[in-house]
Amino acid sequence: MPTCSPLHPRGCTARRSRLIEWIPADNLDDLEPLRSLVGDARIVSLGEATHGTREFFLMKHRILRFLVERMGFTAFAIEATWPEANRLDRYVRTGDGDPAVLLSGLYF
């Protein structure tokens, strides 16, 4: 299989696959090719070309579901403002607060 490098995108041609869905609740079968790309990695980093583009976040949601449900990942980190992220972390650990209100404070 050819080497796949972000510096040489043409080297990734053999690994391309069509993503069928981008709705978070949809079936994850079209993401199975990610399994071979992730391999035995313990950390997967996801970026986006712009901040706030809805479709990027919806697709990242599906990818995170895939990583958790199909590959057993158990930790998630996101770039966010410190005070608002701390309040959301408190909710995750203790259940204190309203998740919708806390998420709206993250400006996504």
Which key features would you list for this structure?
4 helices, 108 residues, globular, mainly alpha
Average pLDDT number: 81
Uncertain residue ranges: none
User: What's the gyration radius in Å?
Assistant: 16 Å
The total beta strand count reads: 0
Instruction: Bin the helical content.
Output: 25-40%
Number of helices: 4
What structural category characterises the helix and strand content?
mainly alpha
User: Sheet with the most strands?
Assistant: none
C-alpha end-to-end distance: 37 Å
Order of helices and strands: HHHH
Oligomer status: single chain
Give the overall silhouette.
Answer: globular
